[in-house]
Design a protein that fits this description.
Blueprint lengths: L4 H14 L25 E2 L12 E8 L11 E3 L2 E5 L5 E5 L5 E5 L3 H4 L15 E3 L2 E5 L4 E6 L5 E6 L14 E3 L2 E4 L11 E6 L5 E6 L5 H4 L3 H7 L6 H4 L9 E4 L4 E5 L8 H4 L11 E6 L5 E6 L15 E7 L2 E8 L5 E6 L5 E6 L6 E4 L6 E3 L9 E4 L13 E3 L4 E8 L1 E10 L6 E10 L7 E8 L4 E8 L7 E4 L3 E5 L4 E6 L5 E6 L9 E5 L2 E8 L6 H4 L11 E7 L27 H14 L1 H4 L22 H8 L17 H19 L9 E3 L2
Parallel strand pairs: 1-32
Antiparallel strand pairs: 2-38, 3-4, 4-5, 5-6, 7-8, 8-9, 9-10, 11-12, 12-13, 13-14, 15-16, 16-17, 17-18, 19-20, 20-21, 21-22, 23-24, 25-28, 26-27, 27-30, 28-29, 29-39, 30-31, 32-33, 33-34, 34-35, 36-37, 37-38
Helix pairs in contact: 8-11, 10-11
Length: 687
């Protein structure tokens, strides 16, 4: 629901009393030189030429088709009239911000450099960084590359993760005081998390901070790691840890600090990775580091002894709020666990935390201890638990924004539950027993599988207005001094809302779902709004929105007042499955069952759990003519016939396994043709 006019007046009054940040340094203006706008990562533009009175005149200024792209998650940068942004495989583009003309394109050729890395993550990249004439990008295969901003020519490249590890880079670097910092992904595979700062000019490593401890020998002499190690038990450095920093990082120029958000555990099950108990620092935490040295200053952990793939890697906003009558320097974050946190950024002390939506894993957060008051059996002690939110979170990487003008945070939220089953198995003769976890979505509530745009008051810790959305996986937000909030959604619309009461004032049919956050910038005194259009993501059956693989072009759209450009037409959403099958083929149930397991471990990330693809980066194989032929599957999956098109090879697959995958696909297509549901394949593993 939206609040009526009376509530709009109340919101303004409350915001005024709360004393939101009004520092001119908040957000950004003509340029958008950081992923989150300004250093504060607020996603706020001080431009106000486009406002609530004239946003109805907003029109398309220009569009740019991006051939070969798939999932577009990046927030573009805008520097002196040039837009810089990244594509699916870490490609970097420079585009004239007024005309939409492509100035240069840099392809790091990930599939030639190290195609096996693509197997460990979706082909996504959330943006570049800029400073002093250089553009920086992290690549899927783990390189950090510096480019000349005028030409796109490579200046230097640093390999930030081991070549043969499951660690990848999907997030945007950040720049500060002559340095550029990058983290990495891979916590789901047990990788030990860290962030690394490099010299912007030379690419030389300046410092590195590990987010979780290593072996006793590695921890020795490092106070932060020695302290963290006391919260782990067993030989955790052999089992796996996690805690990777793949998204949220915020530089605080006033305090000369970097705040990093750390990820989930790996293995997920704490009884496996740390059997004797312990909080397992610094998993699922916000950690403050000295920007010059990378030395630990403080931490706050949102999920002690993390067990559900929850993470604190969402964007972290720095602001000054009036709390209890005093200006207070704060950090704000909505991690995946469903609470909204306000921390004192000087000390790391928790100020407040409240539920954004349906949350069952904890009753509340104890403000005295800073710890959650947890529900029973949430770590699946009895072998099964149902929990809200799911591991996709009440808020994920899609950026929230904060308007110091209204004092509200605008958050793309979603609701979905999850079951977790823990089955005891043995690793065979001479091996210790380990736990197999199975996950799956729960829809026990009318709002499960849907989203909301929520305007959140961080001082009162409550929603001021919210806009329900029928689909689950929607875009990040932009807030502006024109009292507007912009957001793209999974249904393919790009909308502007009144920042005070949530009234929709304008919308545009983008022709494809949007998950990236928009930006605003100005050139020659004219304000523009830009957004990347390229829907996709994991858990296909949850995020499915009817965007067929390859049916719609990926684009950069830019808007201005009285824009008159026309968007070229593209295929509409199609919610109907169009399966193909060979009715003469006989399927053995054992092959179908075995194929389901192999598919889940190797193929589901791109082609969809239970064969339901979300449109990118891979097609729904039940609709694929290629997947009718097991020899064709072999050539693609084993030999890498489509590697240059983004399909990595799996040379370890046997002919028998490929035959079983083929049987599973055919069974799924046949079930769809008969109107039945395909046999589900649980997401499981020794996590």
């Amino acid at each position: 629901m939206r609040y009526p006019a009376l509530w709009a007046a109340i919101v303004l009054a409350v915001s005024a009393c709360a004393g939101p940040a009004t520092d001119s340094a908040s957000g950004t203006a003509e340029n958008w030189s950081n992923t989150g706008g300004g250093a504060d990562e607020s996603g706020y533009s001080r431009l106000e030429s486009i406002d609530t009175s004239n946003v109805g005149r907003l029109g398309l200024a220009w569009s740019l088709d991006l051939d070969g792209e798939q999932i577009l998650e990046a927030t573009p940068l805008a520097v002196d009239g040039v837009l810089y942004f990244t594509g699916s495989y870490s490609t970097v583009y420079a585009v004239d911000g007024v005309t939409g003309k492509l100035l240069w394109k840099h392809d790091p050729e990930v599939m030639k450099h190290n195609p096996l890395k693509v197997r460990f993550t979706l082909p996504v990249n959330r943006g570049a960084a800029y400073d002093d004439g250089r553009v920086f990008v992290g690549t899927i295969d783990g390189r950090l590359i510096a480019l000349d901003a005028k030409t796109g020519n490579e200046i230097w490249s640093a390999q930030t993760v081991p070549m043969d590890s499951p660690q990848t880079i999907t997030g945007a670097p950040r720049t500060f005081r002559g340095k550029v910092i990058i983290g990495h992904a891979g916590g789901d595979f047990g990788s030990r998390g860290y962030v690394t700062a490099y010299d912007q000019k030379t690419g030389k490593q300046v410092w590195r901070f590990y987010t979780v401890p290593g072996s006793p020998e590695q921890n020795k002499g490092d106070p932060a790691m020695e302290a963290a190690a006391k919260t782990w038990t067993g030989e955790y450095w052999k089992t796996g840890t996690g805690g990777t920093v793949w998204n949220g990082m915020t530089f605080d120029p006033e305090m000369n600090r970097i705040y990093i958000g750390t990820g989930n555990s790996g293995p997920y099950d704490p009884a496996v990775r740390s059997p004797g108990g312990g909080d397992n620092l610094y998993l699922a935490s916000i950690v403050a580091l000295d920007a010059d040295t990378g030395k630990y200053i403080w931490h706050y952990q949102v999920n002690p002894r993390e067990a559900w793939d929850y993470k604190a890697t969402m964007n972290i906003i720095a602001a000054t709020l009036t709390i209890d009558g005093k200006p207070t320097k704060v950090l704000m974050q909505a991690p995946t666990n469903g609470f909204f946190y306000v921390l004192n950024r000087e000390t790391g002390k928790l100020i407040s935390a409240e539920k954004l939506g349906k949350v069952t894993w904890a009753d509340h957060i104890d403000l005295k201890t800073g710890r959650p008051v947890e529900a029973p059996n949430i770590r699946y002690e009895t072998g099964h638990t149902d929990i809200w939110p799911s591991n996709m979170g009440a808020h994920n990487w899609q950026a929230m924004s904060f308007s110091p003008k209204t004092g509200l945070v605008y958050i793309p939220t979603m609701q979905l539950g999850e079951f977790i089953d823990k089955d005891k198995s043995t690793g065979g003769a001479g091996k210790a027993a380990f736990a197999m976890l199975s996950f799956g979505p729960l829809r026990n509530d009318p709002r499960d599988g849907k989203g909301k745009l929520v305007a959140w008051d961080p001082v009162a810790q409550k929603a001021r207005w919210q806009v329900p959305q029928d689909l689950f996986w929607n875009g990040g937000t932009l807030s502006t001094a024109g009292n507007l909030v912009f957001q793209g959604t999974a249904d393919g619309y790009f909308s502007a809302y009144d920042a005070v009461d949530g009234k929709q004032l304008w919308r545009f049919n983008a022709g494809l779902g949007i998950i990236a956050a928009p930006i605003s910038y100005s050139v020659g005194g004219k304000q523009y709004v830009s957004v990347l259009v390229g829907f996709g993501g994991a858990w296909g059956e949850v995020v499915y929105a009817g965007w067929k693989y390859g049916a719609q072009p990926r684009r950069l759209l830019t808007f201005a007042l009285d824009g008159r450009a026309m968007l070229p037409p593209s295929a509409p959403r199609d919610m109907t499955l169009h399966p193909v099958d060979d009715p003469k083929l006989s399927l053995a149930p054992a092959d179908v069952s075995a194929g389901a397991g192999v598919f889940m471990m190797r193929c589901a990330g791109c082609h969809g759990k239970n064969l339901v693809a979300s449109g990118a980066p891979g097609p729904d194989l039940r609709e694929s003519q290629l997947a009718l032929d097991p020899n064709a599957i072999w050539q693609v999956a084993h030999d890498g016939a489509l590697a240059q098109q983004g399909m990595p090879p799996f040379p370890e697959l046997t002919r028998e396994q490929v035959r079983q995958i083929h049987a599973y696909i055919r069974a799924g297509a046949r079930a769809a043709l008969s109107g039945k549901s395909a046999q589900p394949a649980k997401a499981s593993g020794p996590m």
